[in-house]
Design goal:
single chain, 327 residues, mainly alpha, three-stranded antiparallel β-sheet, two-stranded antiparallel sheet, 13 helices, 5 strands, 6% strand, globular
Length: 327
């Protein structure tokens, strides 16, 4: 069967976002123990509190946050590696040593040993390229990527960072590993580091956790290719159009309400991770995890005691339970 069509129900999306932001702002359930996983788990003072280092780190972390490995695991492992080998995240290191050679082979081995082997066959080229672009066009300072003048917009930032397939070291635009979702995530990291102001607007970084939350609550709707009801019979989706729809829904909400992009991203992402991920499971990856090419299948929930225990801990106490189409 062909992939199904996903589209935005903006009225429902606005209701979902507003309902989630209310307990998030009050640090009420399900956000009573909220702590952003995107805060550096290592101590910034280990690096002199240097925002340039932190931004280079986050730019590199994005390479591992494209669906081939769980984001919290990637962040934890790479941050430990950053303490061991901080020079890898310094553009000057790559200026001195070059993009290829024994130092790259040794780096790949170390990354694999530390559980960061996913995608490393590509990252061995992308990481040095991105670092050298920082050195050549941004003075080795990753925070300068965000300098776009007083009329900063996500569209302008997207044009600067996104990989459009015409990569050239001679041009300041275009970094390997960045499409819309990852550029949104980089903007989020810019707020974490302080390189981007909280008044700047950017969309939700739509990963599997955000997509699950938006689809389950009906903020994103699905029209099946065979005409059957998606809520009753499940769906098959390609990830890229789901990202586009999530970006559209979140930007319309932010532009219409003036809400904080950082708060919205943290609220929806944490909700998807803490409430939707462990709920009674009816999601499966169709085939292999392939980043933004991953296909998602929604199936009937099995009626077991384990699933009912999951329901009691998640759906039964969910702040948007009344909007969920997976009941």
């Amino acid at each position: 069967r062909k992939m199904d069509h996903v589209w935005v129900d903006q009225e429902r999306a606005d209701e979902v976002f507003t309902t989630l932001l209310r307990p998030f702002s009050a640090k009420a359930h399900p956000f009573t123990r909220y702590r952003s996983i995107f805060e550096p788990p290592f101590q910034p003072e280990n690096f002199g509190g240097d925002p340039k280092f932190l931004m280079s780190y986050f730019l590199t972390l994005c390479l591992w946050m494209k669906g081939q490995i769980e984001s919290p695991a990637a962040h934890a492992r790479l941050s430990r590696f950053a303490v061991e080998r901080p020079e890898v995240f310094d553009p000057r290191f790559w200026q001195l040593n070059g993009e290829t050679g024994p130092h790259v082979d040794a780096l790949v081995e170390q990354l694999v040993e530390r559980g960061l082997g996913a995608g490393v066959s590509a990252h061995r080229y992308h990481l040095p390229f991105n670092m050298l672009k920082l050195a050549t066009h941004y003075g080795g300072d990753a925070t300068r990527i965000f300098e776009l003048g007083d009329d900063w917009s996500f569209d302008k930032f997207l044009r600067r960072v996104r990989n459009r397939g015409r990569m050239a070291a001679s041009k300041p635009e275009g970094f390997f590993g960045f499409q819309v979702k990852m550029v949104a995530l980089l903007a989020h990291f810019g707020v974490v580091v302080g390189a981007l102001g909280r008044d700047r607007r950017y969309p939700l970084p739509v990963d599997i956790h955000v997509a699950r939350a938006l689809l389950n609550t009906g903020a994103l709707r699905v029209t099946r290719s065979d005409g059957l009801d998606a809520a009753e019979h499940g769906w098959r989706l390609a990830y890229t159009p789901t990202v586009r729809a999530g970006v559209e829904a979140s930007m319309r909400f932010l532009e219409g309400t003036g809400e904080d992009s950082y708060d919205l991203a943290e609220a929806v992402w944490n909700y998807g991770l803490e409430m939707c991920a462990p709920r009674p499971s009816n999601w499966k990856i169709h085939g292999e995890r392939r980043g933004r090419a991953t296909k998602i299948v929604c199936e009937e929930i099995p009626d077991t005691k384990g699933q009912w225990r999951r329901f009691a801990a998640t759906c039964l106490v969910c702040p948007v339970r009344g909007l969920c189409n997976q009941r």
